[in-house]
Amino acid sequence: MRELTYYVAVSLDGFIAGPDGQFDAFLAEGDHMAPICARYRGTAPRVLAEAAGLPTEDGPFDTVLMGWNTYAVALPTLPSPYAHLRQVVITRHHDAPEGSEDVEFTGEDPVALVRRLKGESGSGIWLCGGGALAAALADEIDHLALKINPVLLGDGIPLFGSRGYSPAAWRCTAVQSFASGVTLGEYSRA
């Protein structure tokens, strides 16, 4: 069965973006980039990966799942940001923009969708955002891969949205710290 990994950058205080979706405080350069990009190859938008000489093939994921706000960050420049992956955007209120023919848009219940995707053949499923979608899918997430950035945002979009108090145990499977201050923490459901 396929597994769902929530792979995302996060601040020390648990935000994946600022209040208006800002993510420019996260480090995009440093000694952490090459090893993390190698470990999670294929998770950079294709245009950016090609410009940086990063491979997009043979990564851990063949499907990327995201909410509308995460998807919309690339609009209108990149209406199909991960053309090398199966792209699925969960939205009930937006139509597919021009140039997004390679992207699936669905209003399907996220839990039902993920359970269906897990039952299909293929490699891993990457949840790349956002926080509200992660909260809805918290019980379906098999792995967390957190690029913990050495910054406090103070406010913004929480890693798991408004999930409410519901403790869930995770097991740390790997930690790698870098001179840049970024730490890659990897966890599996306990």
What does this structure look like?
There is one protein chain. By secondary structure, this protein is an alpha/beta fold. The chain has a single domain (4-13, 26-123, 132-179), classed as Dihydrofolate Reductase, subunit A, CATH 3.40.430. It contains 5 helices and 10 strands; from the N terminus they run E-E-H-H-E-H-E-E-H-E-H-E-E-E-E. It has helices at 33-39, 46-52, 68-72, 110-119, 131-136, and strands at residues 4-11, 15-17, 61-67, 86-90, 103-106, 124-129, 143-149, 157-158, 170-177, 183-189. It has an 8-stranded mixed β-sheet with strand order 5-4-3-6-1-7-10-9. Strand 3 (61-67), helix 3 and strand 4 (86-90) form a beta-alpha-beta unit. The protein is globular.
Using only C-alpha atoms, the radius of gyration works out to 16 Å
The main sheet comes to: 8 strands, mixed
List the domain count as a whole number: 1
Could you say which overall geometry the principal axes of the C-alpha atoms support? globular
Number of strand segments: 10
- The percent of residues in helical segments reads 10-25%
Overall CATH class: Alpha Beta
- The CATH topology is what? Dihydrofolate Reductase, subunit A
In terms of quaternary structure, the protein is single chain
List the helices and strands in order: EEHHEHEEHEHEEEE
Short description:
This is Riboflavin biosynthesis protein RibD. With 190 residues, the protein is of the alpha/beta class.
Give the SSE map.
Blueprint: E1 4-11, E2 15-17, H1 33-39, H2 46-52, E3 61-67, H3 68-72, E4 86-90, E5 103-106, H4 110-119, E6 124-129, H5 131-136, E7 143-149, E8 157-158, E9 170-177, E10 183-189
Parallel strand pairs: 1-6, 1-7, 3-4, 3-6, 4-5
Antiparallel strand pairs: 2-8, 7-10, 9-10
